[in-house]
Design a protein that fits this description.
alpha+beta, Rossmann fold, two-stranded parallel sheet, 3 helices
Length: 69
Protein backbone atom coordinates (compact mmCIF):
# COMPACT_ATOMS: atom_id res chain seq x y z
CA UNK A 1 0.00 0.00 0.00
CA UNK A 2 2.98 2.28 0.60
CA UNK A 3 3.90 2.14 -3.10
CA UNK A 4 0.32 2.87 -4.11
CA UNK A 5 0.21 5.95 -1.88
CA UNK A 6 3.56 7.11 -3.27
CA UNK A 7 2.29 6.64 -6.84
CA UNK A 8 -0.90 8.59 -6.13
CA UNK A 9 1.03 11.47 -4.59
CA UNK A 10 3.57 11.60 -7.41
CA UNK A 11 0.83 11.58 -10.04
CA UNK A 12 -1.49 13.96 -8.18
CA UNK A 13 -4.39 11.51 -8.13
CA UNK A 14 -7.53 13.39 -7.04
CA UNK A 15 -10.18 10.66 -7.39
CA UNK A 16 -10.13 6.95 -6.64
CA UNK A 17 -12.87 4.95 -8.33
CA UNK A 18 -14.26 1.88 -6.59
CA UNK A 19 -16.67 -0.87 -7.50
CA UNK A 20 -19.69 -1.61 -5.36
CA UNK A 21 -18.59 -5.23 -4.87
CA UNK A 22 -15.23 -4.31 -3.28
CA UNK A 23 -14.60 -3.28 0.31
CA UNK A 24 -13.94 0.47 0.39
CA UNK A 25 -11.46 0.30 3.30
CA UNK A 26 -8.26 0.35 1.24
CA UNK A 27 -9.58 2.98 -1.17
CA UNK A 28 -10.70 5.23 1.68
CA UNK A 29 -7.35 4.85 3.44
CA UNK A 30 -5.38 5.70 0.30
CA UNK A 31 -7.70 8.62 -0.48
CA UNK A 32 -7.24 10.03 3.01
CA UNK A 33 -3.45 9.75 2.75
CA UNK A 34 -3.24 11.53 -0.60
CA UNK A 35 -6.11 14.00 -0.24
CA UNK A 36 -8.29 12.36 -2.87
CA UNK A 37 -11.99 11.56 -2.95
CA UNK A 38 -13.57 8.15 -3.47
CA UNK A 39 -16.27 7.73 -6.12
CA UNK A 40 -18.31 4.58 -6.77
CA UNK A 41 -18.66 3.47 -10.37
CA UNK A 42 -21.20 1.04 -11.78
CA UNK A 43 -20.14 -2.33 -13.13
CA UNK A 44 -21.93 -5.07 -15.02
CA UNK A 45 -22.75 -6.66 -11.66
CA UNK A 46 -24.21 -3.44 -10.23
CA UNK A 47 -27.99 -3.47 -10.08
CA UNK A 48 -28.75 -0.17 -8.37
CA UNK A 49 -31.43 2.40 -8.98
CA UNK A 50 -33.10 0.15 -11.58
CA UNK A 51 -30.68 1.47 -14.21
CA UNK A 52 -29.93 -0.45 -17.34
CA UNK A 53 -26.37 -1.05 -18.51
CA UNK A 54 -26.29 1.88 -20.94
CA UNK A 55 -27.52 4.38 -18.35
CA UNK A 56 -25.01 3.05 -15.82
CA UNK A 57 -22.15 3.55 -18.29
CA UNK A 58 -23.37 7.06 -19.12
CA UNK A 59 -23.36 7.84 -15.41
CA UNK A 60 -19.81 6.46 -15.14
CA UNK A 61 -18.65 8.63 -18.04
CA UNK A 62 -20.16 11.73 -16.47
CA UNK A 63 -18.55 10.93 -13.12
CA UNK A 64 -15.13 10.33 -14.69
CA UNK A 65 -15.42 13.45 -16.84
CA UNK A 66 -16.33 15.63 -13.86
CA UNK A 67 -13.49 14.14 -11.82
CA UNK A 68 -10.96 15.14 -14.47
CA UNK A 69 -11.89 18.83 -14.35
Amino acid sequence: MEELIKYCKENKIKTIFVEDMVSPKVSETVAKEVGAKVEKIYTVESKEDNKDYIQSMKDNLELIYNSLR
